[in-house]
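Re: duplicated header lines in exported structure tokens

Our pipeline writes sequence and tokens for each protein into one text file. With two proteins the header for the second block appears twice in some exports. Here is an export where it did not happen, for reference. First protein block:
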Amino acid sequence: GGETRLLRCIGVFLALSARQCLDERDYTEALRLSGAAAGASRTIGDSAGWWAMTYLGARCLHTVHAFRDCIRASALLAYHPLAGEEQGLKAQAETLLSSAWLGLGDLGAAITHARAAVRAAHGQGLGPEVFLDASEALVCALAEAGRLDEAWEYCSTLMLPLLEGGMGRQAKGKAFWAVGNVAFRRGDPAGGLRHHRAAAGLLQPGADVELWARFNSGTAAMRLAAGIHDGETLACIEHAEAATAVVGLPVSAQLELVHSRGIWLDLNGDHTLAVGMLSDVYARREELPPQTSGEVALHLGLALARTGRPEDGSAYLADSEQRFRSVGAADRAAHVAGLAHRVSTGRIGPGLPR
């Protein structure tokens, strides 16, 4: 009847407005409008419209790091009858669930949902980009959990062969970024640099300045973790800082960027300034994912040791080890324990090689 047609028109208008706000990075308004559009679709029995707008809202929640709300919305999507009928929708929802659980530091749940996403996307004729997104989620979760051989197996047998085919520059760039991260974590900085440089050639600020900011911030973090603190690393930090000033990022992403700047200062010998910067980030550690707060405690502990305060540094290293153990990152916890031993025996301190 006329009421249904009116509601359908209203729903279309709200959906278009929500997508426009998403494009303009007004995530609060995009979330509000997508919720209203989903409600209109539900009223007239339009399941596909409801699913699409609920998914858009869940993406907004993830982008602003409202991970628990994102999980609630994504779970509704993953277990909706439409996702049972269309495996592409199932894969998208499970990928978002994996990423949100990763943001909360629950690596086991992140891996479980990423595996479900890969299963849903594999062999369904959905095109490579849905499968790549699911694979990226899986290798990221496996790498965070220290299961690096398994993560690399997925990179080499699933992701890299796909990247030889045709697909969008952004999808390909994000995949090279993920592969590079795994290479760095495996102790292969040459491979990490190669794949990150391939990603840098594909991810450009003119296409998506927010993604470019995240990429440069993430690349800087990986380079610093590998001890690479050269001009190219500084350029990544500066690119991310400049882009963030334009588009803004969630508080946790901004803190991660300050964290990288602090590490860069420490590795380049400005230990006192690094301690101040890293202490500021550590004071807001509860706004970070647990594994990231563990990294902040680690680098603050090392910077303190290099300023001649090994006892203070050891306390932060103990906190870092506990944080990694709490999220199931046993390899990172063991690495920190080894560094703590070196600090306590005087092998990390003022004037010593980094």
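Second protein block, exported in the same file:
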Amino acid sequence: IYVPKADLLEFIPAQSSLNFRLVVGQHMRRLISRVPPELETKFKHCDYSIKFVNGVNVPNGVKMNLWRFKALYLDRHMTIKSLSDFDLRNLWGLEVCILAECNEMETIVSGSNSPDGPASLMLKFLSVFYMKNLRSVCEGSSSFFLCLKSIALHTCPMLTTIFTLDSLKKLSFLEEIIVEDCPKVTTLISHATPEQKSVFFFLPKLRIISLLYLPELVNIFNGMHVEHDVEKMVFYYCPKLQSLSQWELSKASVKIIIGESVWWEALKWNAAEWGDAGRPNVFERIFSPISEEADIMTQLAAHQETQLSTDHDEFLVITVFFLFLYLMF
């Protein structure tokens, strides 16, 4: 249902159910969208979703009805500084959030307006695109991302702070991190003092890290002791990332490393961590080079298809094996 004026939402009875998809605001079709078509399509298939387009301020009709929805797409909001402007208690049921071209937004969540109750326990997928003034993901201590599984940050030229020590403690469900075209990002974890870097953190669900077009990135975890089971790591145009520590690259879990051959060969391996032999041989077997002349996204998609095909083949082998045992006995 398309509702051009947000004020109309104020007439919806509080006890009624909105089991449909809602588009609010001055919605106009564009020839070019900053959000990839496949993500747009996925959002269109989300039940209980609201897309708020070309918004100004925080209309009461939107604010008072947000609790009804599981998916939010905030597209080109003109004035909002943070999702906290909607009052996070209204976002208690949100599972999917897409933010695109909200050029006044400076932080996604402000810790000064964080709920204490279940309002913070649902968000699982966060995707951000082309946010001109975004500087941080979270300010202060907030539990809004407590159940977050995937975070993707694309083209945020002012972004400097992704995770802090406080937010890192609340990311035990995080599975995937994507950071692309954020030229001021130097590390994924900011504001760590030398004393704090000895603190141990554990991200038990983290499986994929993709770092693309980050010219100032110098490390991944800022020297922090972060234990994880990352299986796939993707690097592209991170010229200042000149070494990887054992806390960033786990021999026990990583299955594939994708990156430029020139960058890979130039990496320095600290003898104190990796031994005098330098780069372990196991990494040579799992490294997959990217061509600098071909489209990076096309290549990554091809890698993904190859991996799916491999997983399917492994499944068939296991199935045939157990079928054989069944027929034998």
